[in-house]
Amino acid sequence: MSASTQRETLWGALAEPWDLLIIGGGITGASVLREATRAGVKALLVEQRDFAWGTSSRSSKLVHGGLRYLATGDVHLVRQSIRERKRLLAEGDGLVRPLDFMLASHPKEGGKHWQGRAGIFVYELLTGRWPRGNHATSRLHELEPSLVREERLIGVPYDEAWVDDARLVLRIVREAVAAGGAALNHVRVTGLLREEGRVAGVELWDTVGQRSATVRARAVVNATGVWADSVRAHLSGAPKLRPLRGSHLVFSSQRFPLAHGISFRHPRGDRFVCVMPWEDSTLVGTTDLDHSTPLDQEPSISSEEVAYLMEAVESRFPALGLTVDDVVSCYAGVRPVISSGASDPSKESREHLVLEEEGLVTVTGGKLTTCRAIAHDALRALRRRIPELAALEPEGPFLGTPPALDDAPLSPEARLRLRGRYGADAPALVAAAHAGELDAVPGTSTLWAELRWAARNENVVHLDDLLLRRVRLGLLLPRGGEAHLPAIRALCQRELGWDDARWESEARAYLALWRTHYALPERPRLSAVNEVRLATSLANPVQLRTVNLPGGPVHYADYGGSGPTVVMLHGLGGCYLNWLPAAPLLTKHARVLAVDLIGFGRTPIAGRSVGVEAQRQMLHHFLTEVVGGPAVLVGNSWGGLVALAHAARAPETTAGLVLVSPAQPPPRGTRLDPAQASRLVLHTMPGVGEYKVWREGKRTGARGLFMDLLTLGCADVRRVPQEVVEENTALIAERMERMPLGHSASYLRATRSMILTLLGRNRFESWVHGVRAPTLLVHGRQDRLVPVASSEALAALRPDWSFEPMDDIGHVPQMEDAPRFVARMVRWLDESKAAPRLSPALVARQA
Ligand SMILES: Cc1cc2nc3c(=O)[nH]c(=O)nc-3n(C[C@H](O)[C@H](O)[C@H](O)COP(=O)(O)OP(=O)(O)OC[C@H]3O[C@@H](n4cnc5c(N)ncnc54)[C@H](O)[C@@H]3O)c2cc1C
């Protein structure tokens, strides 16, 4: 029966009663399915994307004894990990492979050096072997010639094992299904069914067939890893998880040859970095950072993580001269770690959690290595509801024994590989191979036959299922294996039952996904936004540029267009992408550039002031050096204040001024609310304000911070395009990681400067009077940040300005109702004669 027929048959059987329903097709869900099935329980697993799509295909690929957990005193976890590793090495030979590791350590690390050595001593004893002698410097260099030549650097040996993580999940799922279990990928749980106050099933949505179903089960397990809180939220369970991102770089083994895994301390700080051979490559990882981008978006490595990992590699392997150009691919995964509130992410415990709430058993937070033991813990919690589970043998075998492949025309290595990865299917895979398909894809050990087998039998729904998880060519080959796509197509298209159009659209989607999430990040990472713009067939996709100006580099977005130049400045805490909804509409009438103010978005802050005057000078240099003549300045909120200051001080560069809910003092005579005044004082106090925003950021994450700002600024947040939210959130997340106090430092310093400027009301009013250019003042009537009365008072000071209060809009009209805002601006451009005063030949000089 073909994979798609099997899928249809299973979908048709969903209405039958099930004993157990498992949400999540990562290592945990797969192991629960395997063990429940072994106990004779009728179990169904559903996975919203692909099996192992989540963290289980993005790990460090180690089946490890958990050496680092000794440092946090988790001896139980270490013992359990060692036991499970031994089992997986024996049962999963070929899929799990032993790997000699060394800690490269130097006495100059002081106490840490001795601590590391002592830790490995204890660890080796726990594994049941007497610790081996350390490798002295000369021996270390014989073993790993590319390691830095440093007197007294020693290698402390210990044992580990590597694994193809996604294939481990797939093998467990396949064996569970062969034993009577059921599993569906690309089926999402959208709701929980509750009867008499207990969870009695789930609502499903099939993203392939675009259909829904209700499934009843005696018990439901939530094995959704880092998504566990979102499933628990259906029961109003308070969040328990702290999503922590870890990222890796992949190099080819020719460029970065290694015989051992090596761990060492990062030159900046105490964290360990590991480099190790894996498949035909060398992995470098990992990082440990709070992850605040939405979980339904594939995680990606940030530029800062790339720099951090490259710094580690360069410091320990300088002779290789590795650069980012040698990186073949990158990947990032998010750990489901149980939050204790520790300030350092690396201090959070890696123990798993089993929790029962209204009949829903949640199991999360574990590791690949301990998957079997974790599954048993989860199933123990279900025994009351499913008594058959009591029969489960706690120490029984986990993986099946694959048949020998003695007669197959394969090298011993290839035989081991197929038996480990495909278990009982290995002989059929070999039998299904066409001529030449038992050869390896060049540059890898992956056999062509694996692709045919997976395409035919392994529930591949999208091309990334095949190339990133069934086989790992997407990680191992440059550009995700693009050069081999024609050969893969010839082999797989018919097996998958795809016509030409389907193949081509899958290939496009795969390559776009690879570029966005598995390639080195561009700086800035904007492909998603570009694609949105291209998809809406606007004439000009946004181009992101950097220019080096006196004072430092400045980032700006060139939205294109022709005609007079319009330069846009964003509000506090935002970035040039806040103009994304409006700017493209304006390109029919003008050349549009949006500048990132210092310290927000991507314009760097290091060594620079973020105050009003510094921002104004940056704008001045931008207008002089990039625009080359006067422009219409458009400023929203804080950007409005900067634009106003500039228009008054440098009229020769200002052809027109558009102030959009600008930051301004309250109208004269307004009495400040004492509570608000004290909040302002707190905000402006050095240190205190930063700390407050930093705490908020810790609590709500980058998305929370941005959503709070949006909620304040908008009459209706839903009108802000999703890509603006996503890109701002990503930027805030990057800033939170980059700076000691994250986002707060630049944000608070700018707020302080703004408030101090506004307190000097006389200076503000002198700027207002000093503006010579035609001016449009726009204000959203539902603005909660700057009352409309302030703009009314401003308009009264300058009756020659056009004043446009806009209904049903808050502080950010250009995001909430871009078409109306742009239409008003274009009318004003026509009426005000601002545009004809512009030089028509204002060509941006590009960095
Ligand atoms: C960088 C990094 C390195 C690591 N290295 C190692 C290592 O070397 N060794 C080790 O043992 N462990 C390692 N770990 C830990 C290990 O990878 C994870 O703990 C483990 O993969 C978690 O598996 P899981 O099944 O719980 O979660 P996941 O693999 O994330 O699976 C959960 C699944 O649930 C699905 N899901 C979510 N919501 C729904 C829904 N509503 N409906 C249906 N499905 C849903 C998701 O799509 C996902 O596929 C590492 C983790 C990271 C992040």
Question: Can you walk me through this structure?
Answer:
With 847 residues, the protein is an alpha/beta fold. The protein folds into 4 domains: 169 residues, FAD/NAD(P)-binding domain; 167 residues, D-Amino Acid Oxidase, subunit A, domain 2 (D-Amino Acid Oxidase, Chain A, domain 2, 2-Layer Sandwich), CATH 3.30.9.10; 102 residues, Orthogonal Bundle (Helicase, Ruva Protein, domain 3), CATH 1.10.8; 230 residues, Rossmann fold (3-Layer(aba) Sandwich). It is 39% helix and 20% strand. The protein is built from 29 helices and 24 strands. The strands form 3 sheets. Strands 1, 2, 5, 6, 7, 8, 15 and 16 form an 8-stranded mixed beta sheet that branches. Strands 3, 4, 9, 10, 11, 12, 13 and 14 form an 8-stranded mixed beta sheet that branches. Helix 23 crosses helix 25. The radius of gyration is 30 Å and the shape is globular. The structure holds flavin-adenine dinucleotide (FAD). The site of flavin-adenine dinucleotide has 40 residues, from helix 2, strand 6 and strand 14. Belongs to the FAD-dependent glycerol-3-phosphate dehydrogenase family. Keywords: FAD, Flavoprotein, Glycerol metabolism, Oxidoreductase.
Helical segment count? 29
What's the domain count?
4
Number-wise, the strands total 24
Largest sheet: 8 strands, mixed
Structural class: alpha/beta
Name given to the CATH architecture of the largest domain: 3-Layer(aba) Sandwich
Name the beta content range. 15-25%
